[in-house]
């Protein structure tokens, strides 16, 4: 299951993680965000123990959203060792997530 992250816990959960992290930047009102939500949940189950999957509501986390330059949602950032390793923007198929994720393992 994906973990909720926000301005208060982003650094502790994402940046300090010893595993690769996927962060889905989303909003409740965003249709494409709802389209990829099942994919994000599937990945959190399939990669449990290998990858940390997090969701960041842009409306509730303005500092984190600005810090990482999130201008369009959904945006998914892939972190490894506390640094951005890759990203996806928009509603994309699950295969795109897997192709970005596997090299980080």
Could you please describe the fold and organization of this structure?
- The chain has helices spanning 10-15, 31-46, 62-67, 94-101; strands at 3-5, 21-26, 52-57, 75-80, 83-89.
- With 105 residues, it is of the alpha/beta class.
- The protein has a single domain (3-85), classed as Glutaredoxin (3-Layer(aba) Sandwich), CATH 3.40.30.
- The longest helix is centred in the middle third of the chain and has 16 residues, at 31-46.
- It is globular, with a radius of gyration of 12 Å.
- 30% of the residues are buried.
Mean pLDDT value: 97
The radius of gyration over CA amounts to 12 Å
**Distance between the first and last residues' Cα:** 19 Å
* CATH fold group: Glutaredoxin
**Strand tally:** 5
| Multimeric organization | single chain
Sheet with most strands: strand arrangement: 1-3-2-4-5
- Tell me the strand percentage band: 25-35%
CATH architecture: 3-Layer(aba) Sandwich
**Structural class by SSE content:** alpha/beta
CATH superfamily: Glutaredoxin
Low-confidence region ranges? none
SSE sequence, one letter per element = EHEHEHEEH
For the sheet with most strands, the description reads: 5 strands, mixed
Q: Count of DSSP helices? A: 4
- Give helix % range: 25-40%
């Amino acid at each position: 299951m994906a973990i909720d992250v926000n301005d208060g816990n982003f650094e502790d959960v994402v940046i300090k993680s010893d595993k690769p992290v996927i962060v889905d930047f989303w909003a409740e009102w965003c249709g494409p965000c709802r389209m990829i939500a099942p994919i994000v949940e599937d990945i959190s189950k399939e990669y449990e123990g290998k990858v940390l999957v997090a969701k960041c509501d842009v409306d509730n986390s303005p500092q984190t959203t600005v810090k990482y330059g999130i201008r369009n949602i959904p945006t998914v950032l892939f972190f490894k060792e506390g640094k951005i390793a890759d990203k996806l923007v928009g509603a994309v198929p699950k295969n795109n997530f897997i192709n970005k994720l596997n090299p980080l393992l």
